[in-house]
Amino acid sequence: MNIDITKEELLKKFGLNVKIARMKKGLTQEQLADLMNIHLTYIARIETGKINMSLGKILELAKFLNVDINKLLFIE
User: Fold this and answer.
1) What are the two backbone dihedrals, phi and then psi, of residue 25, each rounded to the nearest 5 degrees?
2) pTM score > 0.85 for this model?
3) Where does the HTH cro/C1-type domain start and stop, copy by copy (predicted)?
């Protein structure tokens, strides 16, 4: 991992990983939000890199997407 990455770049890459995993699962943002019992805008903010999720929430998200947490956290 590049240690010179900025927080903003990290959040955007994580958000892109979430979006890809969600789409592979065939879910809309709204469907994922409903499954997780959270507001739609929260998912949108994750995917656009505008929110810094806690590790616990990332784990929960990985479980709902049925994806290895490492796939969400993988940053080149």
Assistant:
1) -80, -10
2) yes
3) 18-72
